[in-house]
Amino acid sequence: MAVSLPEFLVDRAKSGAARVSLWSAPDRQYVATLREMAPAADPATRTYLAKYALAGAGDDVRLGMTATLTLVDPTSESVARVPLAAVFNQGDGASLFVVDKTTGAVTSRRVVVAAYESTDALIASGVDEGAEVIALGVQKIDPARKVRVVSALAF
């Protein structure tokens, strides 16, 4: 796999891990290993050509396929991305409602928000990976009542 990296990502590419997902199969990810980095920037684009090897790539990965390369910053912490509407504050800090799928019980969890984006909030801590978070109608939730989890709305 060959990509053109801007100057500010060259050091991260050399020191960090990378993952690749194909546009044709976005749910599948491959570990990418940097095998070659251009010593100088391309004079026209001012980017550096980087070539990656994909570990475990089988026959489903072919030359010319479009992919997304994600560089992992070893110094950064992982965050959870939740819809902005899921975060609420009742005067004591940012919180989320988490649902137990088996019982329908709702629990309020205090969270640390790393950043707010236009449609999402990045949660640094306070919620476990894989937790079911209520994303709509949090202002009307009563934690004493149980809810039913639905995977999609049908009209």
The span between the termini is 43 Å
Low-confidence stretches: none
Quote the average pLDDT: 88
Kindly provide the radius of gyration, computed on alpha-carbon positions and rounded to a whole number of angstroms.
21 Å
Structural class: mainly beta
Order of helices and strands: EHEEEEEEEEEEE
Shape: elongated
| Percent helix | under 10%
Please describe what this structure looks like.
- By secondary structure, this protein is mainly beta.
- It has 2 domains: 70 residues, no CATH class; 61 residues, conserved putative lor/sdh protein from methanococcus maripaludis s2 fold (Beta Barrel).
- Helix content is 4%, strand content 43%.
- It has 1 helix and 12 strands, in the order βαβββββββββββ.
- The strands form 3 sheets. It has a 5-stranded antiparallel β-sheet. Strands 7, 8, 9 and 12 form a 4-stranded antiparallel β-sheet that branches. A 3-stranded antiparallel β-sheet has the order 6-11-10, with no helix packed on it.
- A hairpin with a 3-residue loop joins β10 and β11.
- The longest helix is centred in the first third of the chain and has 6 residues.
- The model has no long low-confidence stretch (mean pLDDT 88).
